[in-house]
């Protein structure tokens, strides 16, 4: 049996990149996850020495237990973390789309923090014959805190390899027609079932994106602009007027100014002004997670009702919606142009191996 790695069939791979999740809704697991996440200099741009004391002396001891309770509130019975569950489903169903098209493309998932780690995924793909690799972040809007950090980790791992694969990456797809269409139809499917908001009566459609410190924008991060464009394109695709929808930013952390308007204060303000119904959607999150299921579907609902609102409707993320999987495939295929999406036949591989062996004999 031939064990020469240079004489095996070469394959194309797509690696989905996501943020990560604790392995369990416990203080210990959450602490380990938060420590890795918040130790990333792409995420927290504070001098390392100062931040080390803040993180280990204040944040981790206090926040780990509180966050664990929040994770427990959204943990799926028998399935675990929603983010992990839906991310794995997306990878599985994307592989099925390629297979149905007659392609042989390796598909895997890597989490920037936690498991499956980037290194684990890359090693697994390499062992399966990966020679060409497309990085496809599950972050539609580019940010140095997410996409760039995930790319950094891939580069760090590949830096240790002697034989590296060809490499391509998808920077963003915040305005990709297939992505916008999937978002549109996700919203419409809910409205067709539960009824469309009465915008003339003051109902509002809110699109909440994850926030970032304002200084990231001022330093040149394009995330804010890309979120606004996604919001505008989705609003237009739904036939909404600018005043009928709002783009807001959630998950503010610390005392520094973050991207505005903030989601929670905006919801409170709408309720106080007499808005009776809000439909809220998180287009920047392709999979439901703590930030959508707990912060938006639960906490924000309480704020709205407490301040006079009546009807609060959370629209689930794209998750494993078939249109979203097709959009992922469309995005991937555009970046795979020119690469083989198949594998050598047994006869072709045998012939190549025979030629290589003959060349070795002649060389001796």
UniProtKB/TrEMBL annotation:
Pathway as given in its UniProt record: Porphyrin-containing compound metabolism; protoheme biosynthesis; protoheme from protoporphyrin-IX: step 1/1
Amino acids binding Fe(2+): 210, 291
Keyword Lyase recorded: yes
Principal location class: cytoplasm
Listed CDD domains: Ferrochelatase_C, Ferrochelatase_N
A Pfam match: Ferrochelatase
E.C. no: 4.98.1.1
Classification via Gene3D superfamilies: 3.40.50.1400
Catalytic activity field: Fe-coproporphyrin III + 2 H(+) = coproporphyrin III + Fe(2+); heme b + 2 H(+) = protoporphyrin IX + Fe(2+)
Family: Belongs to the ferrochelatase family.
Known function: Catalyzes the ferrous insertion into protoporphyrin IX.
Protein name (record): Ferrochelatase
Lineage of the species this protein comes from: Bacteria, Pseudomonadati, Pseudomonadota, Betaproteobacteria, Burkholderiales
Gene, per the UniProt record: hemH
